[in-house]
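User: Could you check the structure of this?
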Amino acid sequence: MTGAAASLAAAPSFAQAPSAPTLVAARAVLAKFLADANHDRRLLMGTLRPTAADYRLVWREPFATRLDAAHAPLWARGETFEPKPDQTELDVVLVLSDELIDRQPVLAQFPGGYARIVEHLARGIPIARFRFHRPGATAGLAGDGLVHVGGRWVLMPKPWRALDDR
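Assistant: Sure, the predicted structure tokens are below.
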């Protein structure tokens, strides 16, 4: 698997979204957050909540435990992605964590904070960054940390912030 970007305006229903660690599957999960009155974004976000065991599979200790604790308020508040109605397109870059750890050029496509935490990542983990945007635009609502672990997709956004919570 290598870094790739693609646009998508629609995807299969969330329940039918593939659970394989592929770009198509990652886009199917994220596309459900696009403006659509038929989907409860908070419910969708809740399905992406990682377990403590998920954190330990993706991150090395003690960082895994620290990130789990740092993310607890995010999940308690019920935060979700809220793309604007005109943000109908989705770009996704999906790579194996090895590419970030090895500081391959795709690292530059992820938020800068990833350069601070790559040594805490486990190898072989599919991880994505993404952006909801207007057609033809390059800027929009960005997110990161969608990872495939244990046969499912979970969200571990902005992991570098756990370094700042010391």
